Amino acid sequence: MIVSTKGRYALRVLIDIAEHNTDSYITLKDIAARQEISEKYLESIAKELVKSAILEGLRGKGGGYRLRRSPDTITAGEVLKLTEGDISTVPCLKDNEACSRTSECRTVAFWKGLDEVIDRYIESYTIADLMRREQDGNEYII
Question: Residue 11's closest CA among 25, 31, 29?
Fold first, then answer.
């Protein structure tokens, strides 16, 4: 599984909005400048995040985007599944892609297990977790 720029940028957008959270809306122009991402590309990402009720958008003067939910309730898994679609590691585990060899396949349990580990991992991180600059293991002291 390779996460596309869409998935990576969606996480960055949500972290940016959460870090600059006020009662006012944040413009895509400001987010694009801070994140060094094309504003046009961010429009398509923001549209999906609004449609899924993660963001709230307001058009016009004073408009922009803000979170509809607390950063500690939005998981990285939710965002990646939204932006990437099916995140299975192998095609035979994707929705509606049956493999004729599944019943006799000696590796299908391995791939299912890997998918479960990945799913647990990405669901264990929230936007609030990703906002923290100091992640465990990032401190190096001599």
Answer: 31
Tell me how far apart the alpha carbons of residues 103 and 113 are, in angstroms, rounded to a whole number.
16
> Model-level pTM?
0.86
Distance CA(6)–CA(10), nearest Å, equals: 6
- pLDDT, residue 137, reads 55
Closest CA to 78 of 60, 58, 106, 53: 53
* pLDDT tens digit sequence for 53-99: 999 999 988 899 999 999 999 999 999 999 998 888 888 887 656 77
118-129 confidence digits (pLDDT tens): 999 999 999 999
Measured CA to CA in angstroms, residue 17 lies from 12, 23, 26, 107 at distances of 9, 11, 7, 42
Residue with tokens 């990402």: 45
Q: Report d(CA 98, CA 78) in Å as an integer.
A: 24
